[in-house]
Design brief:
Helix content of chain B: 25-40%
CATH topology of the largest domain in chain B: Rossmann fold
CATH class of the largest domain in chain B: Alpha Beta
Shape of chain B: elongated
Number of strands of chain B: 16
CATH architecture of the largest domain in chain B: 3-Layer(aba) Sandwich
Strand content of chain B: 15-25%
Order of helices and strands of chain A: HHHHHEEHEHEHEHEHEHEHEHHHHHEE
Strand order of the largest sheet of chain B: 11-12-15-10-16
Number of helices of chain B: 22
Number of strands of chain A: 11
Oligomer: heterodimer
Strand order of the largest sheet of chain A: 1-2-6-5-4-3-7-8-9
Largest interface: A-B, 35 and 39 residues
Structural class of chain A: alpha/beta
Largest sheet of chain B: 5 strands, parallel
Number of domains of chain B: 3
Radius of gyration of chain A: 22 Å
Helix content of chain A: 40-55%
Distance between the termini of chain A: 52 Å
Radius of gyration of chain B: 28 Å
Shape of chain A: globular
Number of domains of chain A: 2
CATH topology of the largest domain in chain A: Rossmann fold
Largest sheet of chain A: 9 strands, mixed
Amino acid sequence: MTRACPDCLTRARLLEGLASRIELLASRPQRPVRQLLNLSNVDLLQATGVPEGDRRALVAAARAAAAADADRPGSDGGVVCLHDDAYPARLRELPDVPWALFHTGPLDRLERLTAEKPVALVGSRQPSAQAEQNAYALGRRLGAAGVTVVSGLAFGIDAASHRGALAAGGGAIAVLASGADRASPVRNRALYNEVRGEGSVVSEMPWGARPWRWMFPARNRIMAALAEMTVVVEATERSGSLITATFALDLGRAVGAMPGPAGARLSEGNNLLIRDGCTPVRNATDVLDAVYSVGAAGQAEADGGRRRIADDPVLCKLLDSVEVGETLEQMARRSGLRARELRGALARLEQIGLIRRSGLRGYVATTTG
Amino acid sequence: MLASVATFALDGIDSREIAVEVDLRRGLPAFQIVGLPDAAVRESRERVRAALLNSGLDFPLGRLTANLAPAHVRKAGPSFDLTLAVALLAASGQVPTDELGRYAVCGELSLSGSLRGVHGTLAVALGARRCGYERLVVPSANAPEAALVEGLEVIGVETIAELVDLLDGRMEPRPVAPLASSADRPSGDLADVRGQDDAKRALEIAAAGGHNLLMVGPPGAGKTMLARRLPSILPPPSFDEAVEITRIHSVAGIGNGRLASERPFRAPHHTISPPGLVGGGGRPRPGEVTLAHRGVLFLDEMAEFSRAALEGLRQPLESGEVDVMRGQTPARFPAAVMLVGATNECPCGRSRSDCRCTDVEIARYYRRLSGPLLDRIDLICTVNAPSRDDLIDVDAQRAESSAVVRARVVAARERQTDRLAGTTALCNAQMDGPLTRETVPLDADAMSLLRSIDAPGDLSGRAHDRVLRLARTIADLDGRERVGADDVAEALGYKLTLPELAAA
């Protein structure tokens, strides 16, 4: 059983039923998708040109499908509609707010993931190697700092961002254009399963819906709305990521862009954003500074990481040792680890992202010094 | 009269058969040696003449021509003296010639007629057996070494007169006991080292899997002391290995006159030339990497070695052999070594708080390190100066002795030998990529740990394999067939990756 009300579920199914018609309309520049999504059911049927006689049947079919959705067992996901308190508050700020949000995993997980300030990482599907690394590093450090990373599960930047966040054990939300139970693109199925297992996959479209082209900008507005800040890692000038950035700006949210090489075609989009006055983002610290406040980055990261090892007193002691720059012998003494366990423990801290190697000089804490 | 006696000349660390022919005929007294002799061989004439006369033998008057065949090979050193003398005696009818074909002879003469030891007797004896000689005559000082070779009757003689008596059948050869292995343990014991648990653990892993190791720490922290103890925890050399080691050291003249009981430890100074390290010279001589064959090559201050010298180590570390070409002479030397490098954290070598190095200096220092060698190094460990507590606390429990650690290492090696039977690898460090993935079964936890860091830029394919090999060795040390998450985590802690250095 789901908590969403029948009207909201019907709306989702209706959108699916009208998908091909909306596709046709949305391909014309004078009728952008978001304008259509802002319409009531009646107006939408009118606008998409459904013949008078067919409308009743269409709505009835949508209602029937919605009833089936409502009876769907909620074990591996559910629907939350805008009349529910658990509906992500940020989404409500959209003028064309999605009525229902289909999500995988338990609802309280989605609530937890959207409670703090999520950050959306977006960018090209065919990024440069450097940008892909940047996205991964960004996702990882944000994840380590306890910030939920929102992205779209596409190839390239999206996938790298998700991977980074998951590697750090952080929160990840994937917003799909298709139904949330469909791994799309299919080649990212493994990643889809990981996000589904650790984080949450959400969509405005009902279960099983296939993706249409117009659903991607529609999806982008959800990403922009879910996130406190949207960061464009790398995008060409005609990239969908710029659309997401525009949506975020419309909502009055922060938009950041990683600088790319001047003259690089792959980076024209993000560089354009910087020229237009977006926050330049060099690393996760810049993002955290923008989302929280200057200087908060270190604290957030430290807290986020610390939280993750809070139930392991040995790792906590070890982290203290690294922060004050002790030698390995001193670390071993303080933490009570034997030599053979010490390196493993340090590697785990490094993997979480709390410490890193500094050349040949051993380990330093990532948040101090 | 014409006589010919066989001997063996050193050629690299092998020996090559040489026939010493002497032709004696009437004419003005003259003595000439042909066949590319060097100065030491040419001077042999005077030693032979004096030795024969001082031993109560005749030096034949007449025209003497000695030929060292094959004529195109350069001959060097004094080890032809005795052969030349015997050939001369045979040519002048002072010893019977019918048995001489079964003998190979080698040794340096003093003017008094007594014999001095020569280098490389073991290589000579191996050559003599290979060429089918039944008896080998060597100075008695070298006889035990030569007697290591089975299937060859080794005769040690003190003087030329004694050899004549032997050939005449007036005396029986003395029995020769093969070289005993040396009992002393010069390399020290791991129990002497206080603290340094991290480095000791790294040494143990390195020894167990045959991994190359890099130690990082300030001067005086004990890097050399630790490395020097590595042979004491490596598995003792097998008899064949001991013979190999002894033969190389004998050729180089650095043997202690006993059979090697420990693996060699060589620590060349960082100013060494490339040929000094990998071998070379007019007549190719083995370099340090060959002298460390089956043992440990320790490069202290690794960043200070010349680029060319370090580059030269690439091939030996890859294949366990080194090919050198000098002039027209190619030579191949065995060079299966474990490499242990040591370096400071930064060029000044001071502790982090006192360091005054600029970023540029540090970057340059690391760049010198990276490149040719670091991708052959599996482990990195830290050596800090021992704390006062460790030094003062005399009551502290004594550290494990080398023997205890060695027992674990040997057990781990045996597991590897069983597993790797039928492959080209002898230990974990020698496994190539496909073999690594095949022989390292990861459990689910280990897999997810590895996957969580398996990302672009974080761990290249090669680095990935390196971590797997290390984890394999760590599990072997514990006697486990499956590799667990803890093994992988520890391996990750000791891993050394180039991007970290390049970025630093």
